[in-house]
Write a structure and sequence with these properties.
CATH superfamily: STAS domain
Oligomer: single chain
Strand content: 25-35%
Strand order of the largest sheet: 1-2-3-4
Order of helices and strands: EHEHEHEH
Largest sheet: 4 strands, parallel
Radius of gyration: 13 Å
């Protein structure tokens, strides 16, 4: 499953995004690639939502990957230590190829 995120990932949109993905994480053991190409803003609340999704995916056996981080989002992931908790690919194509190999 590929999920494209765009705009702002803040307290409001982060909660909606988290609820949407939680449904899939709890019901299916699938690989999810989150394409962050369109993310223009990431608040601490948005980062928290992503962290909760990573934790839930591990608990339920879902593989969760990220790709297309802007330099802004990448810097936030690096500074917060979030990048050490997940797998990030430079592009959607690379993510899809690698995820396909993991199955």
């Amino acid at each position: 499953m590929v999920v494209r995120v765009s705009g702002q990932l803040d307290v409001t949109s982060g909660n909606v995004f988290e609820k949407f993905l939680t449904t899939h994480i709890h019901s299916e053991k699938i690989a999810v690639v989150i394409d962050m190409r369109g993310v223009e803003y990431l608040s601490s609340a948005g980062l928290r939502s992503l962290l909760l999704l990573v934790k839930q995916s591990r608990q339920y056996g879902t593989q969760l990957f990220f790709c297309n981080l802007s330099s802004f989002v990448n810097e936030i992931f690096e500074v917060s230590g979030f990048s050490s908790l997940m797998t990030v690919f430079p592009s959607l194509g690379e993510a899809v190829r690698q995820v396909g190999m993991l199955r």
